[in-house]
Amino acid sequence: MRSRIKLVFTVCCFAMSALSHAQGDIMAENEKIPGDTYVDPKDQAVKDNLAKWQDYKFGVLIHMGLYSQLGICESWGLAPEDWVTRNGYDDYDSFASDYRGARFSLNPTQLDSEKWAKMFKNAGVKYLIFTSKHHDGFCMYDSKFTDFKITNPNLPNAKNPKPDVLKNVLDASRKEGLSVGIYFSKPDWTSQDFWWKYYPPKDRNPNYDIKAYPERWQNFVKYTQNQLDELTTNYGKVDVLWLDGGWVRPSDKKGRQNLDINMKLIAETARKKQPGLIVVDRWVPGEYEDYLTPERKVLEKPIPVPWESCVTLGNDWGWVPNDKYKSGTEVIQLLTGIVSKGGNLLLGVGPDGKGNFEPKIEQALAEVGKWLDVNGEAIYATKPIAPYSEGNLYYTSKGEKTVFGIYLPKGNEKEIPAEIVIKNNLKGKLNVVLLDGKTKLSYKNVAGGIAVAIPKSLREELAKKAGVVIKVAG
């Protein structure tokens, strides 16, 4: 049935890309990212960890699950909603059975977590978030509260030397110096306490009236809390708990179920085990959304709260055959635009069911790492500074005496301009250097800043770069 399922998501995945994984009316309400609903953490340990996280600037989000084995869009084919298409299937139940049946073939014997960690470190990545469980409910770790997991003794992966994929990946990443986080889906479309088999599922929400069956919903709340407790207890130091499925949240809005899973207890319990843990309850404004997560987009201007753009390297979060991937240059320019506005880039990538990343993914990451080796000073631990960007020029700063102008050449540029004006308020004699090659550049003072002269001998070669960084130090 695998070939049939592949056909299904040719349409579905592109639809999700176009919709930016819109999470219904709940996400639409919050996707404007105003920042005015943000609540500053009260816990000093959380504040300190959040400040460190803001300096990282570049992370990866790895999606891996049943969908990786099938090479399709993650989980969403299970959602019985009008926009979802399942070409090749005449009924929902056949598709759902085939999808969940992928657990009997998922066996990532080629997963080399040490190789992964080195690849990400060499790419300049500072933090990694791994999917412990997506909306389909399949656990990529050894949960004791379900058999729907990759470590189930009846599944082929259980015979591997390191069957707990989450533990394997997090441990290797920490050894390479990466900060780590765990993605977890609050909805669970296989749990009998979320989608009860007594009723057919009708959309992404619980398929029963939780007011009529409060005990069933409380069983799901306890199940969620138990799983999050084991994730923050048994998997070493965790820096970020990244919770997806923003429609599962308290609500007093007419016509919407009050899907309260008691985030207060979840956060308090987790932070007893993980002091300073950053909790990201996505799209749920309040004290458990420690940073904002605009998806597949870059904010138009800086906001005075922590934020992270989560953007896929290809069209999809997980692995899909023949996906179209961004080049290293595109990622570098995307990263620059985000950092200039004070955000982080969380780049979405996914391995196939065997545990391998596509060569195009490895190539793009290697290109990003090579550029950051030279120019990372203008990215890591920087702050946004007005005017943030003008045309092809983007700004970052470090302290009160250093400004970086990052010029992003367009693909059709034969050479970069002979003169680049960098706005700044630095006083006195300035040291102006091209980071690539440490070439000292001459300049002249102009209104609001300086005009930096780019030698004729360098302009053509610099136009081939993903980004040209000029450091201006007072």
From TrEMBL:
Q: Does the keyword Hydrolase apply?
A: yes
Q: Which domain of life is it from?
A: Bacteria
Q: Give start and end of each Glycoside hydrolase family 29 N-terminal domain.
A: 33-377
Keywords in UniProt for this one?
A: Glycosidase, Hydrolase, Signal
Write down the EC number: 3.2.1.51
Report the leader peptide range: 1-22
**Calcium: present as a keyword of the record?**
no
* Membrane-spanning ranges: none
Q: Which family does it belong to?
A: Belongs to the glycosyl hydrolase 29 family.
Question: What is this protein's function?
Answer: Alpha-L-fucosidase is responsible for hydrolyzing the alpha-1,6-linked fucose joined to the reducing-end N-acetylglucosamine of the carbohydrate moieties of glycoproteins.
This chain belongs to the protein called alpha-L-fucosidase
